Each structure stands twice: as structure tokens, then as C-alpha cells.
């Protein structure tokens, strides 16, 4: 299982993580990325690769 965190101060509201995640981990809330389905993360790192502000961190629990 992985912990997915988004630094809302760095998030640029581009929605790239929402669009690229094959597991549907992210949604947008108040124009910021929200990793609300972290239990679905398979650590493919697609979201990290597309985030222009490096706001996403994934750690193994």
C-alpha cells in the first residue's frame, strides 16, 4: 500500500495527475489535486512524471 500526498502550495491546478492516473487516485477539489483513492495506487509514478511543479510524493506504507 502507498501513501500519496499532494503539496497544495505547489499544485498548479493543471489536472495532469487526474488525467494520467490509470487507477483514478486523484480528483480536483477547490482547484487543487486531491488523492482521495490512495488505496488504489499501484506506484506506477505516472502522476509524478507529469506534475510540472513536483507537488506529488508517494511513499510505501
From TrEMBL:
Entries under InterPro entries matching the protein: 4Fe4S_Fe-S-bd, 4Fe4S_Fe_S_CS, Fe-S_Ferredoxin
Single GO MF annotation: 4 iron, 4 sulfur cluster binding
UniProt domain 4Fe-4S ferredoxin-type: residue ranges: 2-31, 32-61
Keyword tags: 4Fe-4S, Iron, Iron-sulfur, Metal-binding
SUPFAM superfamilies on file: 4Fe-4S ferredoxins
Domain of life of the organism encoding this protein: Bacteria
Name recorded for this polypeptide: 4Fe-4S binding protein
Organism of provenance: Candidatus Nitrobium versatile
